[in-house]
């Protein structure tokens, strides 16, 4: 590689211990250049042009504070879906609050341990703490790629092991949950306004048909086809679906669910662009408020029904587990849930698939043994 982009960013290839190394030398001042490695020669040449342009514009140097670092990191990922972008920002800001006086590039492995202790005291779950540590590791790897630091110090630190718990309702609990949801829709607890609870039964039924919480939040009246018993999950501006496969039609085959949805839509007076499931007072809760609206109602419904607390997403797991137990194949469950790849469905619900297969095998063995015993009895009688 001989092409040069001038004194500021220069790609080169060299052999180190028999291995070809492709890198870009970035010159920021009078000192020695920073060498940033890439997998291929073409990638190094392409990135050298980017670095040269950023050096000329004065945007290549690392931000010295957390807000600037977070903005730069997210700006470098224009292809992120809005929901993913908000999740990344929330996790980074959560960590930043604990190190707000620190340069983001100076975090050491011991800081990850300190964060872990603090977040446990805050009441954060092991899953949340692990996600925040992972997010910083991703940020650090990106900084290494840009030559802002030499190593991602949090990449190999110890992380909490999220506790596995039964994340779905058992078959015998589903009726109790739905009855409690319908009761709360008619008789809100305490001094709460009835209008703030009236659409909760419909939301509960939709969650138990495999919709994601975000899909329920963004559902419009026009998306609910009561005539044909179908709910359309659509990708639209302001309500992006998680993947192309998430854009789907979900059959509503429960007569009771259709009745509840019909009641929920009765007051919309032909406004097809109104929320199908109004959340908050006058149905005007903001995006973050809608998520809390679902989570709180789900928790209180479990309390009223005498069940252990579960999340709205656990109701989606309930649907998948029931479908697999009933004999549905992986591709059918994938289509129902809107997973991008059937392998995702198989991985998440491997326990349910294995259980259903084991039951099927045990049933087949039992039937064979019964037939064998019946045959033996016949032979014995004949003999």
Tell me about this structure:
- This protein is mostly helical.
- Among the domains are: 9-51; 66-145, DNA polymerase, domain 1, CATH 1.10.150; 171-313, Intergrase catalytic core (hpI Integrase, Chain A).
- The protein contains 14 helices and 6 strands.
- It has helices at 41-57, 66-75, 82-96, 109-122, 126-145, 171-186, 200-207, 213-217, 255-265, 287-305, 312-325, 330-337, 342-348, 350-382, and strands at residues 9-16, 19-26, 34-38, 224-225, 230-233, 248-251.
- The strands form 2 sheets. The protein has a 3-stranded antiparallel sheet with strand order 1-2-3, covered by helices on one side. A 3-stranded antiparallel sheet has the order 4-5-6, with no helix packed on it.
- A hairpin with a 7-residue loop joins strand 2 and strand 3.
- Helix 2 (66-75) runs antiparallel to helix 3 (82-96), helix 6 crosses helix 10 (287-305) and helix 7 (200-207) runs antiparallel to helix 9 (255-265).
- The radius of gyration is 28 Å and the shape is globular.
- The chain starts with 8 loop residues before the first strand and ends with a helix.
């Amino acid at each position: 590689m001989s092409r040069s982009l001038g004194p500021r960013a220069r790609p080169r290839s060299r052999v180190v211990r028999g291995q070809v190394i492709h890198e870009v030398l970035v010159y920021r001042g009078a000192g020695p250049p920073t060498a940033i490695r890439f997998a291929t020669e073409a990638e190094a040449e392409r990135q050298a042009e980017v670095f040269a342009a950023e050096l000329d514009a004065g945007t290549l140097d690392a931000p010295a504070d957390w807000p600037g670092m977070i903005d730069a990191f997210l700006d470098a990922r224009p292809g992120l879906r809005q929901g993913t972008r908000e999740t990344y920002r929330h996790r980074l800001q959560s960590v930043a609050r604990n190190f707000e006086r620190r340069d983001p590039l100076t975090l050491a492995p011991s800081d990850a341990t300190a964060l872990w202790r603090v977040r446990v005291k805050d009441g954060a779950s092991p899953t949340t703490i692990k996600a925040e540590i992972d997010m910083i590791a991703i940020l650090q790897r990106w900084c290494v790629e840009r030559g802002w630091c030499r190593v991602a110090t949090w990449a190999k630190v110890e992380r909490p092991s999220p506790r596995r718990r039964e994340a779905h309702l058992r078959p015998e609990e589903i009726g109790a949950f739905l009855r409690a949801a319908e009761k709360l829709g008619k008789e809100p607890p305490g001094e709460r306004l009835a209008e703030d609870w009236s659409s909760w039964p419909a939301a509960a039924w939709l969650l138990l048909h495999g919709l994601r919480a975000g899909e329920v939040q963004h559902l419009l009246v026009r998306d609910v086809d009561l005539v044909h018993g179908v709910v359309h999950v659509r990708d639209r501006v302001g309500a992006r679906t998680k993947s192309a496969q998430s854009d789907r039609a979900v059959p509503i085959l429960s007569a009771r669910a259709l009745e509840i949805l019909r009641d929920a839509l009765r007051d919309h007076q032909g406004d097809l662009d109104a929320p199908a499931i109004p959340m908050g007072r006058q149905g005007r809760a903001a995006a973050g408020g809608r998520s809390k609206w679902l989570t709180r109602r789900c928790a209180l419904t479990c309390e009223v029904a005498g069940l252990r607390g579960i999340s709205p997403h656990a109701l989606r797991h309930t649907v998948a587990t029931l479908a697999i137990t009933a004999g549905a194949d992986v591709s059918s469950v994938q289509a129902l849930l809107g997973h991008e790849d059937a392998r995702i469905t198989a991985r998440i619900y491997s326990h349910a698939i294995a259980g259903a297969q084991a039951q099927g095998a045990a049933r087949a063995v039992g039937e064979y043994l019964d037939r064998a015993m019946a045959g033996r009895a016949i032979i014995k009688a004949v003999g």
